Amino acid sequence: MAGGAKARRLPRAVRERQMLDAAVRCFARHGYQTASMDEIAELAGVSKPLVYLYLHSKEELFTAVIRREAQALLAVVAEAVVDPYAPPDERLWAGLLAFFTYAAEHPDSWAVLSRQARTQGEPFAGEAARMRDEITAFVAGLIGEAAREARGGAAITERDVAALAQALVGSAESLAAWANETPGVTAKEAAATLMNFAWSGLGNLMENERWSPR
Fold first, then answer.
1. Which of 2, 4, 52, 136 is 20 to 30 A from 74, alpha carbon to alpha carbon?
2. Contact (Cβ atoms closer than 8 angstroms) between residue 142 and residue 206
């Protein structure tokens, strides 16, 4: 009785965090359609009516999970590249390392963002797309900075920059999923692989050395 009374006195923000933490685990492991509100309530240590009271529906709970996990990932990447005076390649490396580290250390969160949110239609796919757009815009900014600093950077158009940013972000997402599923691959190794692959190619482009089919 005393324990239950003490639990009920927890602040609402703490209770919601417990529910969201439980929901991340449940959605990541079972998927949106199969995840059970009963299991989420049990994992959170609360009653199912309390989950509905706070978060109203399974759809709203899943939306809240996607938003919270996306904001956490974006915050980690933004914090890693906070130095505006660092060279573009160092900022990109810091951002990639932060991205892969977050995906490795929070596999349930990454599973929700990279798989579950995108395969359940709207409004979930839209939430995931907004996160991706923010990361892509950041990467495009770094590529644009590097192009302006390079001797041949004028040869890269805004369309080139946008396309390269999309390609780099898509590669990072795929590589993070592979790294999380492959034993022995560290976040640093994954980030270095992509950095070497991308930056070497960008260096050639900035010197206006382009590959073309015969």
1. 52
2. no
The answer to whether the beta carbons of residues 19 and 61 sit under 8 Å apart is yes
What integer pLDDT is reported at residue 202 of this predicted model? Answer: 66
C-beta of residue 114 within 8 angstroms of C-beta of residue 31: no
Joined together, the tokens standing for residue 173 give 């997402």
Cα 140-197-125 angle, rounded to 5 deg: 50
The residues, ordered by sequence, that sit 6+ positions from 93 with a Cβ below 8 Å of its Cβ are 191, 195
Closest CA to 96 of 209, 191, 1: 191
Tokens representing 201 are 């190619």
pLDDT band at 204 (very low <50, low <70, confident <90, very high): low
Please give the pLDDT value at position 15. 84
Q: What residues contact residue 111 under an 8 Å CB cut-off, 6+ apart?
A: 28
Q: Which two three-digit tokens encode residue 135?
A: 């990361």
How many residues in total does the chain contain? 214
pLDDT digits (tens, 9 = 90+) for 131-149: 899 889 988 888 888 777 7
Q: What are 161-202's pLDDT values in tens digits?
A: 899 899 999 999 999 999 999 999 999 999 999 988 887 766
Letter for the amino acid at 74?
A: L
Q: 156: which residues sit within 8 A by CB, 6+ positions away? A: 143, 147, 205, 206
Q: What average pLDDT score do residues 68-80 get? A: 91
Classify 100 as helix, strand or coil: helix
